[in-house]
Amino acid sequence: MSSGFSKFYIEGEKESFTTYFSEDLSIRSPIFMNLPEPSPEVLWRPMARYGAYIATTDICKVPWHWDPSLIQNPLMAIIGMPGAGKSETVKTLILRIKEKDIDVPVIIVDPEGEYHVIVKQLGEGVVLNIGIEHYINIFDRPSWNFNYQLWVRKAITPGILKALRMSQAQAPLMMRVLEKSIFDVYEKIYRFDPVNKETWKQQDPTLLDVVRQIESDVKPYLEGRVTKQPPLFRTKMALLERLKRWVEGEGTDFFAHPSTIKLSDLLNQPVVVFNIKALPNDARDMFTFYIFNYFYALMEMLPPLPTFKLRLILVFDEGWILLKSERGEESPLAPLFRRARKYGFASIIATQNYKDVSGDILPLVGTVILLRIRDADAVKKLAETLKIPERISNQIPTLPTGKAVVSIAWRRTDFQNANIPFLVNVETAVEPQITLIMYKKGGAEDVFRSLRSQMSRT
């Protein structure tokens, strides 16, 4: 039996690990050759706390475990065309993470009603059908003492504008009208006082309250009681027409209701699936933006972690709105590039809208998984952004289902091929038989005794 040896540390562990490569792995993947894949020591992580097995590398056939403790930030983007296996990859990853750490809560925003199988397979968790059985008020703050003015500017106004397909730079007048209408509701109707926190303890308004406020503003002009229309009249009317479709009509008044559940309580659930299939696309985008901001703000209210630990994993299928930055605006993901590890906040964002993914955002995401994409311009853009070698990028348009390109921003780069994207075969079945074993304690005799025992069972 031939063996290779390498020393390295798992974050949070004081003892070094010795990696023993079995004869089988050495034959298939000569570790001393400069093959175009990262070193096995950062791929094979079965003993790491969050080492979730996802795939095997295409050339060396080394099992790859996604271990966020080794990556710049615990953010992941999964991008691929319809039918490329995007949702299956996400489901596989969630199940594998829960196998490794059953305590970390996972919250999934599901646009097509397909992630209930996660709850069924795990035998625990809840599925919430938004807009049918449950409602979420997108004005609700993470806590009563969260500054409502900051919340409006950080989460509510940007979320509504994004859902309306407008940026703050494109529609500054509409943004000001919207923001003023929201503040009028908070301060004139609900009597929130900016300097008196005691007034913040009451229930937040809803989008329906804002619509009624704008209707009240334009009513005198519509009824002819005031003949001279102010400059903002047309802007208010345009905004009113766009907002009304989310708060009126039976079965379409998605954001007219107070929340039927308290979002912070969901952190006590092992898995939560928000089924938003009943919502139209623009309302889904607004819901996605709100959920992201709500739970990120909630994490920021907790003390920073002294060592890396996952407190929450947020999963967004079709979360392209989070991967897009526009002129004059920062992507909501931007603060997480620096702070996600600090607060234990992980996010997995899958999308088929690769044309809307911003080139300045993607390279900063800790892990990027590219599935099949046939659009030549999109492939070229992604390859340039992620510095994918031509021999790999040429394969992206014809990748079979289950095969992917992986780009990882490692925390340390003092190992073989640290900066090179690599091909993998995503495994939706069980993890392959172990060919690499890590031991924390015990001498060589114990190691080889265990290896012989394992081989005798195969």
UniProtKB/TrEMBL annotation:
The keyword Iron-sulfur does not apply. InterPro entries: HerA_central, P-loop_NTPase, T4SS_component. This is ATP-binding protein. Keywords: ATP-binding, Nucleotide-binding. Residues 76-291 form the Helicase HerA central domain. It comes from the Archaea. The keyword Nucleotide-binding applies. Signal peptide: none annotated. GO terms for molecular function: ATP binding. SUPFAM superfamilies: P-loop containing nucleoside triphosphate hydrolases (SSF52540).
